[in-house]
Amino acid sequence: MVNALKIIIANIAVAYTKGEKNEIWQRVGGCLTSRLNSIKPSLCKRMEYSDAELNKMSKTKLGEICEELGIKGYKSKTISQRIELIKKHQNDASSVDSDEFCVSADSDASSVDSDASMDDREYVITPCKAPEEYNRNTMKEHLTTYMTPRLEFYKDTDRALFYEDDFAEYHSAKSTNGTRIGAGNHPMDVTTSANNGIDVFCVTTKTNNNSTNEKSLIQNFKDAGTDLDNLFQKKKDTKIVELFGKAYLTKLAKVQNIYGNLYYHGFISTKTDIYEVWFKITLDHIKNVSSDGFITGSDDNVVNVKVKGFINCKYGNVKAYKSKRRLELRLNLKALIKDGHAKKIYTMPSSA
Q: Is 96 within 8 Å of 43 (Cβ atoms)?
């Protein structure tokens, strides 16, 4: 039923957009996506709120989130009960295969899932093999040495494992016979022995089914000044994404000609395991990035913008945040494991 509705809506959308300007289509696409969300919201929504964030929210704010996610029966609930409803919804949504329902605002009638079927070479970041100079065994040794004295803490607190950024960068450099250069002041964290650039990041997820927390792609976005705030206020999502895309390109273009290739080296932690994943960065494909509409779908509550074309939506999502003034990436660990891109590099000993 859902697939049939997707095809019908996609055909209507394609017919409607012929000859229309892109900005008009963005609004129509956002509306259609909102309608699809109402059909089966649990397949479209991903984890957005941590326990800490939810616990700080007022009863009214929690109600707004319940309304946005399509949660029924929340109005009579207390604050703690609303939090539990939201957490349950997030866990249910995260267990759905990402490629089951991945709809783009620019869907072609012949392929509703246009973002998912887009050639991987057209995305800005694409899962890839590690560079040849990388020694995985060396990285495993460093990671095991790092985790061993911390095992008692993670066992007692029942928290997800975490690989601190500074150590991850240092160990990534050691494992590529390279040099750590970043420390937050450079677009890349590591220069490898083969003169490739690596941006190292560490994120966590509660289970293998959940989306991760965020990796910031652009932060401290001060150059936009009041322009960004005005664009959000005027609901110019296309311009917002263009502004963030330009900032991302400017950031990495400074080093593009210095290195042979640019990579992200990611570490994704659960409560018992740490996975690693490599992405290749192709700046020329920034031209394929565009808006996928506002997340809320509400004219009165425009907050953040979905970004498409940055990464295959099967593997993650990118969003532009108004309050944070940041462009953020979240990954789908389950899909990355399924397709062989995320590989386990550490497991907590059963005796820990």
A: yes
User: Going residue by residue through the chain (352 aa), what tens digit of pLDDT does each one get?
Assistant: 444 454 445 445 444 444 444 444 444 444 444 444 444 443 334 445 777 788 888 888 888 888 877 787 888 888 888 888 888 777 665 444 444 435 433 333 333 344 544 555 589 999 999 999 999 999 999 999 999 999 999 888 888 898 999 999 999 999 999 999 866 568 899 999 999 999 999 999 866 557 898 899 987 556 555 677 788 778 888 988 998 898 899 889 889 889 999 999 999 999 899 999 999 999 999 999 998 888 765 444 557 889 999 999 999 999 988 877 888 999 999 999 999 999 999 999 987 5
- Sign of the dihedral defined by the CA atoms of residues 75, 80, 84, 86, in that order: positive
CB 337 within 8 A of CB 275: yes
- Tell me how far apart the terminal alpha carbons of the chain are, to the nearest angstrom: 48
* Sign, Cα dihedral of 267, 268, 269, 273: negative
Token output for 119: 């050639």
For residue 343, report the phi and psi dihedrals to the nearest 5 degrees.
-120, 135
Of 341, 350, 349, 292, the C-alpha closest to 147 is 349
